Amino acid sequence: QDFVFHADTLWELPFGRGKKFGGNWPRALDEVLGGWHLNTIWTAQSGIPLNFQFNGNERPDATGRLYVIGNTNEYFDTSVLVNPPQLASGVYVRPGNLGRNPIFGPGQFTVDVGLFKDFSITERVKLQFRAQAYNIANHPQYSQPDTNIQDSNFGIITSTLLDTERQVEFAARITF
Known about the structure:
4% helix, two-stranded antiparallel sheet, single chain, 32% strand, mainly beta
């Protein structure tokens, strides 16, 4: 990775007894609505370098400047990459002129959110209820585009990364 930004936040919500809102709530209402905490995890990272190939593992020629377009149907300018010159027998005259890893693939951005509250069962026993959502905005996290210039999907992103769609879970934890 070339760049990773990661930030965590934890906020005690201002609802319930002793807080800005709901300070005079009845005890039963305070037990349900007061004392909640919200945490978030913000993650942004650049993509990994792309290495182009043809005919197995040889590099192609670049006839112009290679740049990222960013669309899933054409992630980079495919028109500037071609096979190097070859003899009539099919043998390539030289390796391609494109260097290794000239551009980066798609990056990732996610926001994970958790909402939780501790309930006192006894003086020593606590119950924590937690609701968590990963990638809450359900922003697609794309996989790498096809970098083999001989493929029909060359330059196209055909999938998202596994297990990156929004996921929600509920949990309860007892501590004593």
